[in-house]
Amino acid sequence: MLRRCLFVLFFSLYLLAGSVAAEETVHVLVLPFEINASQDLSYLRRDIPKAIQEYLQPEGAVFVPLDQGTSDTAAEKISDIQAIRKMGLSAGADSVIWGSMTRIGNNISLDINMVESMGSAPAVSVFEAGTGMENLLTVVKKSTEKLARNLFRRELITEIQVSGNKRIEADAIQRVIRVKPGDVLRAGDISRDMKNIYKMGYFEDIRVESQDSDGGKIIVFHVAEKPTIRRISFSGNRVFKDEKLRENLSISTGSILNIFTVKSNIDQLELMYKEKNYHNIKIEYTVHDRDNNQADIEFTIDEGEKIKIKKITFQGNKTFSDKELKKLLSTSEKGFFSWLTSSGELNREDLSQDAARLMGYYNINGFIHAKVADPVVEFEEQWIYITFKIEEGERYKVGTIDMDGDLLVPKDKLMPGLNIAREPFFNREAVRKDILWLTDLHANAGFANADVSPRTQEDPVNHLVDITYSVTKGEKVYFEAIEISGNVRTRDKVIRRELRIHEREVYSSSRLKRSVRNLHRLDFFEDVKVDTVEGSAKDKMNVKVDVVEKATGTFTFGAGYSTVDDFFVTGSVSQRNLFGRGQIIKLGGQVGGSSDLYNLSFTEPWLFDIPLSGTANLYRSKREYDTYDRTSMGGGIGFSYPIWDFTRVSLSYRYDITDISEVTDDASDNVKDLEGENATSSITTGLSYDSRDRAFNTTQGQDHSLRYTYAGLGGDHGFQKVVGELGWYIPVYKGLVTFFHGESGWVEQLPGYTLPDYEKFYLGGMNSVRGFEFQDIHIKGINSDGEETEEGGETYVQFNFELSYPLFKDLGIVGVIFYDTGNVYGPDDTIDLGNLRQAAGYGIRWYSPIGPIRIEGGHILDPIEENGEDSGVNWEFSMGGAF
Predict the structure, then answer these.
(1) Which residues lie below 8 Å from residue 19, measured CB to CB, with a gap of 6+?
(2) In this predicted model, what pLDDT tens digit does every residue of 617-661 receive, in sequence order?
(3) Which domains does the chain carry?
(4) CA 859 to CA 844: how far, in whole Å?
(5) What is the average pLDDT value for the chain, to the nearest integer?
(6) Which of 51, 126, 460, 658 qualifies as a cystine partner to 112, CB 3.0-4.6 A?
């Protein structure tokens, strides 16, 4: 292509040369100019001729030097044309130029004459005028251009034409052509414009010709347009579909066919394959000419085999083994399950981070001068070999540790808290933690601008590093203003009451962090950003709280199957931030083959503008059991109040009226005694601790509670019940979270009252022992008619263990495996942890755009055949949404 362009360029210049006279070398003599001015401007006598020479020399003029004798007599002879011609001949010049410059006030004018040394042709005269001495060079340049037309016998361009273009408008081509009508015709200018047209990228051939016209030449640019792309096709591709390949092309149907662009697109496609570890990829292209100046492009792809990492080696490591170092890497060698996992895959970004991980590992183990070079990647046939080159250097231990500066408390009280003091070798990560700890310590006392700088001193002989933490406490800082923005629906006071900082209080970083956590726990906002900026003085700090609200109205939907209800569905509609006041209202229901439940509740979390939460609810439920039907109606009211961080105490009252009907002969004696309407009047007090970072897909925190219920404040039923729960969420490694949960309960009948079966304990189901159906773990009894019955227990224990890991973190999809165990016991039974029912399973949880979704299946590990149990999976799910 380049050779072709050069040929077109030289051939066009040859054609142009045929229509333009060949330029011969012209020798010119320039005489000193006459200066007419009231000021002394005699220096211009020679400066103007020099300027003329500078303008004409690039055009091909050769200037004859002016000897001293000629210079002295020139002024006397400039009026005698014959004398000037003779002067030119004597000097060997073809032409002689002379003239004068006149200045009157601020106006200047230039009269220039030129005559040939031989012949009788009249002299050529040029006149130009201007204003201001600063424009003298412009006037000289214009005059010289006029002289050049006669001096070199050049012709003017009278017209510019474009031909041969079909798709590209002539105006677009004209815009890149710099020569204009009226310009002197120069081959160099035409050559430059041909290059400009070619750079547009639309043409594969450009030809220039000149035509005679009155007063000059018509310049015609003949162009041949490149074809347009009609169709792009691929062959041989298996890894990527045609649509995916097209998405990564910068060319498309209808665009101009540019071979250089096609080749750059091949590079882009090859990069796609190499990112998938197809490093032997080969792509070629074929252009198929079509009618109407169109062309089809076909990319032929030879993908080759996928290449994986065969071996990772280390060079220079003496202290740590290859096995130990490989555990630090994200990159790994191909393993047995590489078809299922990503082992053996080469990811350049991960590989670069691996080098940094190795460096960091050496740094935290005392190798302060360790160096890890960029990994060397070698491709050999169908395998990849990676080599990390390591220069360990000497290993340094911790020397003396000291503190100085403006300390908050004496250093002897601070020293035990330093991490570096517990490290055998110098550890940069421990130093970083110490800096954060000391900074937070001072910041919590109000010194927001405290600065902690570590100074290290190496002892290369004994291989020790002495470290001194230098503390600059600065001034005590106070909160000046708290500005809240971004809340459209949520009222300011709802946000402010969750803050643990207040205006004009001493700055505290821990209370500021707790405030941010509280706002996240409200679950009213998609994002919470808190920035601190200097206030009206150096000891003042402004806090800017910027929130992004999210939908707080939710609906939930769930379904399941149990031997009691058969298939059932549940749903609820709630608003957790009613009218932007933080109030909660919820209407829920459950409808199944043999039951229905409806509940309406309202919660005010801040009664009387204090953190006293108040809740009221009404409900109605109906359930058809095998041996009776139960219909309940009632309501309650409750209050809770925070007493410590994350800890609340609660008190509630409930009144329930239950109607037991359709009692069969094989019902338990307890149920038979309950036939008809029964009233329960109870009070419950509780203590709860909840420090979870979020309610769904929790990653850390604790959730504990203890509740005591006393029934017998009037009504027909009397009992006391205690239920306790413990839960820990512990982050383990890279998103892996463990959950330990245990709970137990006890209920006892009061003298003179009855304890209804529906107040006893059952296990089984989504939020209990998964794998068992709803309430499928119970105790068996015998009624007065000798029939076997299913009854709830007076005590129970339950334990749950979970491992959760984010499968797709950005999408909020988490995988879960679990182990559940538990059992219920009668009044005379002793809790035996050796006979707990067991189940294990797996599931997926997704915090989807429409709300939380749970799909979990459990297997009974100890099925009892006579109960109809087996070890097959029992699936349950629930899902919800936001509006």
Answers:
(1) 209, 210, 211, 212, 217
(2) 999 988 887 778 889 999 999 999 999 888 999 999 999 999 999
(3) 21-151 (3.40.50.10070), 156-225 (3.10.20.310), 228-302 (3.10.20.310), 308-391 (3.10.20.310), 478-549 (3.10.20.310), 599-882 (2.40.160.50)
(4) 16
(5) 87
(6) 126
